């Protein structure tokens, strides 16, 4: 069997109703996984794309929402994809915009990993975690202080958890997507000046597609990645190499 096959594995993807999460869920399904599509919105469209998949309501307005999700069922792969962004000048940035982003992008990611880890360690089965980081896990960005802090945090806890769990059979890694065509970036692509400035800086000369991230998630979820721990893998068309 291919080292990239996920046949016999069950995967849970957060924020699977749209964008990168939908593409990840579909790619894991194509690789043979049984996929649980988790979202605060309906994941019916994604479920319709993946034979044998099902949906689960998971709203990280409560960052502890996934606390009981992994206890009753063996889930082998967790993809923490759900994320939000708030934009304002640092000088005007509100506590509400700080807390909301940190809760969804960082606190929920850590405690969802913890719930997954508890169940996997109790069963002795191991597993794979893929967190969705960002270029702003490495760069500062502008007018997105809580997003930048949260995504630096995602890179940090990915390494911390890898250190604690690598020897116990759980691989914890992250993907740092570059500029990807999703709803999230529609406004940037619609602005010809921003669009050109971004494209000129991407060595690959094109925006990323959600599927580019989906296929990388398959790799990090598969046996082919068994010796990869604590990596934050840039999938950015070369952006960070510039
Ligand atoms: P998106 O289309 O806006 O998708 C974000 C997902 O997160 C949606 O499914 C959304 O659900 C979900 N979500 C938001 N708040 C939630 C909550 N409280 N509870 C549960 N789910 C929640 O954006 P995307 O581009 O696909 O982003 C997916 C991930 O990739 C994010 O972590 C983002 O930071 C990261 N990323 C994206 C890019 C890019 O260029 N697009 C680059 C780097 C990193 P709703 O649809 O219900 O809002």
From TrEMBL:
Keywords: Oxidoreductase. It comes from the Bacteria. InterPro entries: 2-deoxy-D-gluc_3_DH, NAD(P)-bd_dom_sf, Sc_DH/Rdtase_CS, SDR_fam. Its EC number is 1.1.1.127. Pfam families: adh_short_C2 (PF13561). The keyword Oxidoreductase applies. GO terms for molecular function: 2-dehydro-3-deoxy-D-gluconate 5-dehydrogenase activity; 2-deoxy-D-gluconate 3-dehydrogenase activity; NAD binding. Belongs to the short-chain dehydrogenases/reductases (SDR) family. This is 2-dehydro-3-deoxy-D-gluconate 5-dehydrogenase. It comes from Actibacterium lipolyticum. The gene is kduD_1.
């Amino acid at each position: 069997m291919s080292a990239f096959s996920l046949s016999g594995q069950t995967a849970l993807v957060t924020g699977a109703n749209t964008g990168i999460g939908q593409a990840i869920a579909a790619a894991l399904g194509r690789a043979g996984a049984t996929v649980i599509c988790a979202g605060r919105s309906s994941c019916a469209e994604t479920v319709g794309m993946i034979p044998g998949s099902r949906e689960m309501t998971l709203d990280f307005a409560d960052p502890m929402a996934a606390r009981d999700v992994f206890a009753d069922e063996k889930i082998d792969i967790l993809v923490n994809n759900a994320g939000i962004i708030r934009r304002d000048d640092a000088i005007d940035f509100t506590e509400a915009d700080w807390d909301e982003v940190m809760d969804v992008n960082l606190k929920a990611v850590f405690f969802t990993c913890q719930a997954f880890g508890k169940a996997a360690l109790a069963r002795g089965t191991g597993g794979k975690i893929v967190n969705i980081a960002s270029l702003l896990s490495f760069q500062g960005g502008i007018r997105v202080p809580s997003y930048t802090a949260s995504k630096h945090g995602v890179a940090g806890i990915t390494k911390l958890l890898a250190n604690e769990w690598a020897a116990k059979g759980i691989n914890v890694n992250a993907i740092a997507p570059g500029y990807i065509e999703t709803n999230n970036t529609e406004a940037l692509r619609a602005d010809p000046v921003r669009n050109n400035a971004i494209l000129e800086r991407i060595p690959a000369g094109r925006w990323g597609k959600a599927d580019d991230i989906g296929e990388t998630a398959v790799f990090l979820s598969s046996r082919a990645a068994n010796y990869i721990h604590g990596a934050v893998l840039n999938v950015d068309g070369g952006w960070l190499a510039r």
